Amino acid sequence: MAEETIFSKIIRQEIPTELLYQDELVTAFRDISPQANTHILIIPNKLIPTVNDIEADDELAMGRLFTVAKTLAAQEGIAEDGFRLIMNCNRHGGQEVYHIHMHLVGGEPLGKMLSKS
Ligand code: AMP
């Protein structure tokens, strides 16, 4: 059984956050430390620690991450100019919270995709 992270508390609305969307599969909220003008996290309600742990049964929730990302990008007014969706995995990916999450970042030019700094 994977260990809960702070994101489980956000899903259960036990700690304050700017909640933007929630349904039976996913939850979306603003990142507490935004790396761009718009920085939203979209997460499955089920605790899946890393992309390595995704199972076939999770495909509906994984698809929902994308449809919610698309809808929120439109709501934020960043869809036309564009944005980036990022999911970090484990140490080399720079993952810090072990409950998978899709970063939706945009609202300004984002530069090159990868930085080694
Ligand atoms: P990652 O490095 O991909 O694991 O990203 C974790 C993200 O979670 C970072 O961008 C953090 O700023 C964000 N984060 C951590 N705690 C919170 C919180 N309580 N509310 C919102 N975002 C958070």
From TrEMBL:
<dbReference type="GO" id="GO:0003824">
    <property type="term" value="F:catalytic activity"/>
</dbReference>
<dbReference type="Pfam" id="PF01230">
    <property type="entry name" value="HIT"/>
</dbReference>
<dbReference type="InterPro" id="IPR011146">
    <property type="entry name" value="HIT-like"/>
</dbReference>
<feature type="domain" description="HIT">
    <location>
        <begin position="6"/>
        <end position="115"/>
    </location>
</feature>
<dbReference type="InterPro" id="IPR001310">
    <property type="entry name" value="Histidine_triad_HIT"/>
</dbReference>
<protein>
    <submittedName>
        <fullName>Histidine triad nucleotide-binding protein</fullName>
    </submittedName>
</protein>
<feature type="short sequence motif" description="Histidine triad motif">
    <location>
        <begin position="99"/>
        <end position="103"/>
    </location>
</feature>
<dbReference type="InterPro" id="IPR019808">
    <property type="entry name" value="Histidine_triad_CS"/>
</dbReference>
<dbReference type="InterPro" id="IPR036265">
    <property type="entry name" value="HIT-like_sf"/>
</dbReference>
<feature type="active site" description="Tele-AMP-histidine intermediate">
    <location>
        <position position="101"/>
    </location>
</feature>
